[in-house]
Amino acid sequence: MTHNGATLDDSARRGRLLQLVDAFRRRTVLVIGDLIADEFIVGEVARVSREAPVLILKYDTTQVVPGGAGNAAHNVAALGAHAALAGLVGTDAEGKRLLASFPRQVDRTRVVASARYQTPVKTRILAGGTHSAKQQVVRIDRETDWPLSQAISDTFAQRLVGALDRCDAIVLSDYGSGLVTPRLAVAVRRALKAAGRSVPVLLDTRYRLLDYRGLTTCTPNESEVEQALGVTIGDNPAALETAGRRLLAATRSRAVLITRGSRGMALFEPRRTTVHVPIVGSDEVADVTGAGDTVIATFALALAAGATFAEAMHLANYAGGIVVMKRGTATVSARELADAVRGGIA
Ligand SMILES: Nc1ncnc2c1ncn2[C@@H]1O[C@H](COP(=O)(O)OP(=O)(O)OP(=O)(O)O)[C@@H](O)[C@H]1O
Ligand SMILES: [Mg+2]
Q1: Is residue 129 assigned to a domain?
Q2: pLDDT digits (tens, 9 = 90+) for 51-71
Q3: 293 labelled catalytic
Q4: Structural domains in the chain (count)
Q5: Fewer CB within 10 Å of terminal CB in the chain, N or C?
Q6: Would strands 82-90 and 106-114 be described as parallel, antiparallel, or unpaired?
Q7: Which residues have CB under 6 Å of ligand 1?
Q8: Domain containing 178 — which CATH number?
């Protein structure tokens, strides 16, 4: 089996992907976006309440991990690269805990802490025993200051573009706060152009896909695409193809990567045939939370390392396949990614 062309091609392809992963540690990705504290409160099921038909949990632990743009930056760092993070937190206890939850490798000097801003928190209450799997019971969201005014976003953008030095890719992570706006994206592009730098700028946006133009690429999930275009894709390949091409035209980007959950991914580039990849290694899906952040972090790093869009997609697809096998808001290491490329989870 080792002598046929397909196998040789395959080993060359894997070799090339491994080279790219190896180059990650010399790259820096700047992530600009909405910082969210992902809080996990874990308790053990004690009994059923007499006050109401609900469970009583015996409190065990509280853990805070970076969510939103923070999760994307965390994933960049986990992949062995340098991450720089720009965003907004409150000076409240939640903001302090969020900032403290990052590993050292994430440069937080561009994170603005404001006394007038309340740090957004998504609290998941998990119930379970010490030896049984934990299950989410309820989620509580605190994002009371969203949407932010355009004035706040403009001030933030002004400060930011003065500090765009030294990065190999930029990720805009817009979870809907109004901090990352099409205007901010234009300011970033102008600053890069003025400095004569060609750095890929990637976009992940919940609600405003069609408002951003001329960025390098974007990574919407299928439901974001359906919402933006007012179409239904589901299992229909023709609808997917039309949607991808429409997005490419509307956003004027060089590539559109549509993530499709358990259906894998599709990559659209002008004048090229669409590339489809199925998911890898995910027969044991533990938690899909934050998989999109892992995908854009890997996609950005791969492009920063010189990958083609298709190569970057393959690496992002491996990373997505790994991260959904982990519980909670998780990350993937360069080593895990390399193992997957070598065939460990395929
Ligand atoms: N159920 C699943 N089984 C296997 N892989 C999955 C599953 N869900 C997600 N993935 C992997 O994660 C990638 C991104 O997932 P998805 O399309 O759900 O992104 P998303 O909705 O943006 O995620 P997020 O919740 O972080 O915003 C997929 O392309 C795939 O690689
Ligand atoms: Mg997403």
Answers
A1: no
A2: 999 999 999 999 999 999 999
A3: yes
A4: 1
A5: N
A6: parallel
A7: 221, 259-262, 264-265, 279, 282, 285, 288-293, 295, 317, 320-321, 324
A8: 3.40.1190.20
Q: Which of 175, 221, 276, 337 to mutate to test the pocket of ligand 1 (most atoms within 8 A of CB)?
A: 221
Tell me, in angstroms, the distance from the centre of ligand 2 to residue 58's CA: 33
Number of C-alpha atoms within 13 angstroms, CB side, residue 28? 11
User: DSSP string spanning 156-180?
Assistant: HHHHHHTT--S-SEEEEEE-SSSSS
Shortest-distance Cα residue to atom 31 of ligand 1: 320
Read off the pLDDT of residues 105-114 as tens digits, 9 standing for 90 and up.
999 999 999 9
Integer angstrom CA distances of residue 117 from 35, 146, 159, 180, 314: 12, 10, 17, 16, 39
Protein residue closest via CA to atom 16 of ligand 1 = 261
Catalytic residue among 10, 107, 293, 339: 293
Tokens 């259906």 belong to residue: 263
Angle at 286 between CA 56 and CA 339, to 5 degrees: 145
Does 237 fall in a domain? Answer: yes
Does residue 273 form part of some domain? yes
Q: Please state, for a pLDDT cut of 70, what percent of the chain lies above it.
A: 97
Range of the domain at 106: 15-35+72-116+146-342
Please state the length of the chain.
346
